[in-house]
């Protein structure tokens, strides 16, 4: 489990170089991917569902991204995009194409639906965390103004 989290850390660092993100943020993006993958592993252990695990992992990535964006005064996307790289269902997408080539269409359909569901869960997790974070921030700001 620790080995997977370390690999997720590095898997989130390498896209930073690709996307030309400020080098001072490399460590923080690595932590984003590692925390997201650790959340995925914990949730997967209890649910055995890649969809709910991916949702939880991406939600945590989104919250971490919003917090670090405020702290480091940078867009949250600089953390969330590299942070979700370990969660992207690459092997299931590969298996889908592989089953299509082998003409095993029922297995291809099954893996294809899983790929789409995981991708949707990742998108929904990021969206929900960003929306929730902004909603809570506005509530706190309005309470400050009311006082």
From TrEMBL:
Pfam families: ThrE_2
Residues of the Threonine/Serine exporter ThrE domain: 4-130
Keyword field contains Isomerase: no
UniProt superkingdom: Bacteria
Membrane topology term: Multi-pass membrane protein
Membrane spanning stretches: 6-21, 26-44, 79-101, 113-136
A biological process from GO: succinate transport
Keywords in alphabetical order: Cell inner membrane, Cell membrane, Membrane, Transmembrane, Transmembrane helix
Chief place of localization: membrane
GO cellular component terms attached to this protein's record: plasma membrane
Subcellular localization(s) per the UniProt record: Cell membrane
Family under the similarity heading: Belongs to the ThrE exporter (TC 2.A.79) family.
Name of the protein described by the UniProt record: Threonine/serine exporter family protein
Organism listed in the record: Clostridium aciditolerans
Source lineage: Bacteria, Bacillati, Bacillota, Clostridia, Eubacteriales
